[in-house]
Amino acid sequence: xxxxxxxxxxxxxxxxxxxxxxxxxxxxxxxxxxxxxxxxxxxxxxxxxxxxxxxxxxxxxxxxxxxxxxxxxxxxxxxxxxxxxxxxxxxxxxxxxxxxxxxxxxxxxxxxxxxxxxxxxxxxxxxxxxxxxxxxxxxxxxxxxxxxxxxxxxxxxxxxxxxxxxxxxxxxxxxxxxxxxxxxxxxxxx
Length: 190
Description:
Elements: H1 14-27, H2 32-37, H3 41-54, H4 61-74, H5 80-90, H6 95-103, H7 110-125, H8 131-139, H9 144-167
Helix pairs in contact: 1-3, 3-9, 4-5, 4-7, 4-9, 5-6, 7-8, 7-9
């Protein structure tokens, strides 16, 4: 069986130490995800760099959390959903929408719901978007820039969601009270 150690800035492979120190400085701690990723320094660096780049997109902090949390839900990441619940709250997302994302349900704002549905479709189709999906996204007020920014957000979540799935990353204490398991969604009756 493969073991996935939880590194810190003193035990990690040398190429990961600077990135872990930067994460700690920015975040006030080193989450277990980054501790795990440190075993593969290029993965950790790619994740941290992509996260910073996503923060520079045209999407607002709430909109970025919609992308992140939708991918987390679709990929069943029981590590990331609690963290992004907290980050969504800190970004100022309405509590009803924070909970909707945890349930995979529609958001209260139609434009934000279009972003959620587009992100969901990107994840579910692995990017093989139908023209109708692009038209619906555009009709809600989004453009090519935001469609491509969703790709970046999904790529970031692919790195973290897959890492957590493979490594069974333990949930950090600050978000244990927000623990999550994907709800069973019953099909609609015909």
